[in-house]
């Protein structure tokens, strides 16, 4: 297998949004394939027609798109391949590796009740397993796989290690229902084989399925994939992640304003590690990711760690790419699109907005001085810094700035000189300047705001604040 191209897959059921656990499974498959020049395929397991919806498929695709997990080739629909799945079941019948079972539901239940009463295993043993075809009635039947009755099935799992299941604990699994439709367990194996999947990386809730699915591989003479069953994600309290722990869907995290790069980094660290590395890039993750770095114990979801990593990714992000993602965030939340002048201002300001912002709402809040409408209306806290004395100071300051060359050093020099002339320190000027330029008491640095706004807009805002009447 070392010479073969690595092929992984993500195979969600379209019954809802892209769950955060599913997002991590997709990420692990994507990293493993991308880091080895392999293929990452996407299959929608839509055989449950009652619960599968096109809207859920769309939600899953949107979630993967937001996370930047691109897949190779077309999206495969499992339902559309039903004829192929049935074809394999009939091939197994022809080989004698499967059989027609005519037992009714009532007969199966009666068998189980008798077994319970006698303290025997309730695994159904079909009387049709070795029946002569000549004795088959003209009645509905299911097709069952002939599972070995002795010995054991051994799963060599890259995460869980060697897992052994006694064959007498496995029943003869149904492959085709009485209406001729294939079951999910058969469909998964046929699809993985036909798609050339070499590595099945999925949640450890599928571990028992692997033992049963291996029976189909072996009966068909197909090579087994490499299995890696990864632990589930728990909440901070150690219980299985659920709605009570907060957001569950990837789309909810986009709407909360987390950057995709930070989310990828955090999800990669959730159950997998590379030494003590916490913060890393996509390139590093692809290079480092391997199956032996995945732990056996469930990972705990920690919102504080997620926020911390997201802040680090915002700080180092390319400005244009960050702006593009902020616009996608605004669209996802139904907010208005940025007018072109606000867009340009935000891009100019990005250098002074990125530090210490953990989410896009925090960054946008810092950008209030650009995004707000003019004339500036100061909030209650900022208005306290615009008393008559402060307005007088601003009126005296504006002419000093008229002829300043608009660089940070020059602006610092002018403001410090002015403060000295007023017999005060620059810190005393900062409050009124913030109120005049942004209408807020907490803002990026006064110099950064003036540089981003430019000479004309800065002076216009200072002028207006200087002459406006109180109240």
TrEMBL record:
List of residues binding ATP: 243
Any Pfam family: tRNA-synt_1c
Domain Glutamyl/glutaminyl-tRNA synthetase class Ib catalytic: 5-307
Motif ('KMSKS' region): 240-244
PROSITE patterns: AA_TRNA_LIGASE_I (PS00178)
SUPFAM superfamilies recorded: An anticodon-binding domain of class I aminoacyl-tRNA synthetases (SSF48163), Nucleotidylyl transferase (SSF52374)
Keyword Nucleotidyltransferase recorded: no
GO CC entries: cytosol
PANTHER family xrefs: GLUTAMATE--TRNA LIGASE, GLUTAMATE--TRNA LIGASE, MITOCHONDRIAL-RELATED
Role noted for this protein: Catalyzes the attachment of glutamate to tRNA(Glu) in a two-step reaction: glutamate is first activated by ATP to form Glu-AMP and then transferred to the acceptor end of tRNA(Glu).
Protein name (record): Glutamate--tRNA ligase
Gene that this sequence comes from: gltX
């Amino acid at each position: 297998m070392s010479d073969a191209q690595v092929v992984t897959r993500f195979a969600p059921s379209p019954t809802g949004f892209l769950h955060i656990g599913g997002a991590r499974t997709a990420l692990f498959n994507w990293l493993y394939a991308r880091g080895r020049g392999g293929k990452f395929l996407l299959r929608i397991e839509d055989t449950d027609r009652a619960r599968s919806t096109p809207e859920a498929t769309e939600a899953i695709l949107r979630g993967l798109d937001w996370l930047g997990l691109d897949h190779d080739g077309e999206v495969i629909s499992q339902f559309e391949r039903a004829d192929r799945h049935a074809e394999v079941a009939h091939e197994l019948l022809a080989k004698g590796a499967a059989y027609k079972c005519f037992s009714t539901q009532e007969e199966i239940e009666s068998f189980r009740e008798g077994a319970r009463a006698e303290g025997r295993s309730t695994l159904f043993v079909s009387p049709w397993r070795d029946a002569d075809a000549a004795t088959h009635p003209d009645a509905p039947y299911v097709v069952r796989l002939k599972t070995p009755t002795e010995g054991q099935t051994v799963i060599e799992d890259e995460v869980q290690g060697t897992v052994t299941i006694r064959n007498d604990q496995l029943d003869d699994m149904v492959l085709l229902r009485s209406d001729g439709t294939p079951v999910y367990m058969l469909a998964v194996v046929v699809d993985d084989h036909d798609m050339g999947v070499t590595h099945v990386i999925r949640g450890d809730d599928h571990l028992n399925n692997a033992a049963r699915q291996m029976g189909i591989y072996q009966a068909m003479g197909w090579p087994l994939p490499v299995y890696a069953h990864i632990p589930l994600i728990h909440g901070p309290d150690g219980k299985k992640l659920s709605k009570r722990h907060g957001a569950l869907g990837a789309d909810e995290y986009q709407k909360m304003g987390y950057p995709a790069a930070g989310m990828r980094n955090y999800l990669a660290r959730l159950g997998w590690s590379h030494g003590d590395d916490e913060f890393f890039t996509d390139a590093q993750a692809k290079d480092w990711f391997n199956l032996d770095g995945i732990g056996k114990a469930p990972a705990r979801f920690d919102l504080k760690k997620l926020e911390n990593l997201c802040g680090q990714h915002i700080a180092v992000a390319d400005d244009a790419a960050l702006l593009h993602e902020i616009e996608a965030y605004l669209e996802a939340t139904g907010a208005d699109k940025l007018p072109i002048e606000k867009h340009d201002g935000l891009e100019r300001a990005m250098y002074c907005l990125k530090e210490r912002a953990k989410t896009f709402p925090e960054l946008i809040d810092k950008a209030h001085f650009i995004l707000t409408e003019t004339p500036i209306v100061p909030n209650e806290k900022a208005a306290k810094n615009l008393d008559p004395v402060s307005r007088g100071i601003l009126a005296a300051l504006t002419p000093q700035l008229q002829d300043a060359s608009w660089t940070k050093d020059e602006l610092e020099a002018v403001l410090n000189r002015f403060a000295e002339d007023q017999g005060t320190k620059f810190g005393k000027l900062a409050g009124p300047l913030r109120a005049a330029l942004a209408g807020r008491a907490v803002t990026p640095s006064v110099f950064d705001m003036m540089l981003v706004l430019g000479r004309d807009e800065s002076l216009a805002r200072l002028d207006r604040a200087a002459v406006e009447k109180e109240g």
